């Protein structure tokens, strides 16, 4: 099983690039953001809890996120692999993901970080907010999410770097050029 973590701040292009990678490599995309939005839309009890947290710009607690993620992996027992998007966001989440995948006889093959500066992120998300109206893209909540990424989430990278699994790709440029760079990394595996 070929499992990758696509890493980057809000607006780095993880969703856009994941769609292209799924098509090329027949991997299953697991976006914690998409899972949260689906639970919120369905107004499940979990969705109601997640909705309140996201509305405040807070991260969803690990136990909720990990349970949802494990459920998604278990729904796809014949998958060639997974692209994890938006997860892990903390070292304890990375450790939990490693432990869970190990229990399935698998592991993370590689972590690809999309490098995008804050100025570009702000511009991209402002455009996405106009196009989609996502509540978590509103200026005040977005700033919290970007700060959260650069103060907490970024610290997950050394965890994977220590395992020699980290690759960085420039996330600024033409979508197809970024995709070619991502594919070059994945093709090594």
How would you summarize the topology of this molecule?
Layout: E1 4-7, H1 14-25, E2 28-31, H2 32-41, H3 45-55, H4 62-74, E3 82-85, H5 91-103, E4 110-115, H6 118-132, H7 139-151, H8 156-161, E5 166-170, H9 175-187
Helix pairs in contact: 1-9, 2-3
The side-by-side strand order for the widest beta sheet comes to: 2-3-1-4-5
What is the percentage of strand-forming residues? 5-15%
Low-confidence stretches: none
The share of residues in helices is 55-70%
- Note the total helix count: 9
Which of globular, elongated, flat, extended, rod-shaped describes the shape?
globular
Mean pLDDT: 87
| CA-atom Rg in angstroms | 16 Å
Order of helices and strands: EHEHHHEHEHHHEH
Instruction: Report the biggest beta sheet as strand number plus sense, adding barrel if it closes.
Output: 5 strands, parallel
C-alpha end-to-end distance: 11 Å
Class by alpha and beta content:
alpha/beta
Number of strands: 5
């Amino acid at each position: 099983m070929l499992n990758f973590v696509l890493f980057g701040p809000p607006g780095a292009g993880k969703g856009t690039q994941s769609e292209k990678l799924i098509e090329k490599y027949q991997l299953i995309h697991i976006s914690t953001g998409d899972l949260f939005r689906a639970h919120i839309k369905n107004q499940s009890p979990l969705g109601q809890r997640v909705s309140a947290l996201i509305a405040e710009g807070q991260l969803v607690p690990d136990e909720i996120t990990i349970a949802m993620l494990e459920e998604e992996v278990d729904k796809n027992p014949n998958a060639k692999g997974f692209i994890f998007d938006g997860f892990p966001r903390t070292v304890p989440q990375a450790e939990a993901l490693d432990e869970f995948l190990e229990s399935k006889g698998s592991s993370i093959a590689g972590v690809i970080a999309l490098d995008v500066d804050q100025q570009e992120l702000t511009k991209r998300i402002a455009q996405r907010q106009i196009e989609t109206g996502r509540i978590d893209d509103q200026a005040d909540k977005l700033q919290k999410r970007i700060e959260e990424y650069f103060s907490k989430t970024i610290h997950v990278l050394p965890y994977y770097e220590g395992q020699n699994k980290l690759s960085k790709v420039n996330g600024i440029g033409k979508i197809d050029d970024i995709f070619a760079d991502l594919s070059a990394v994945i093709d090594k595996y």
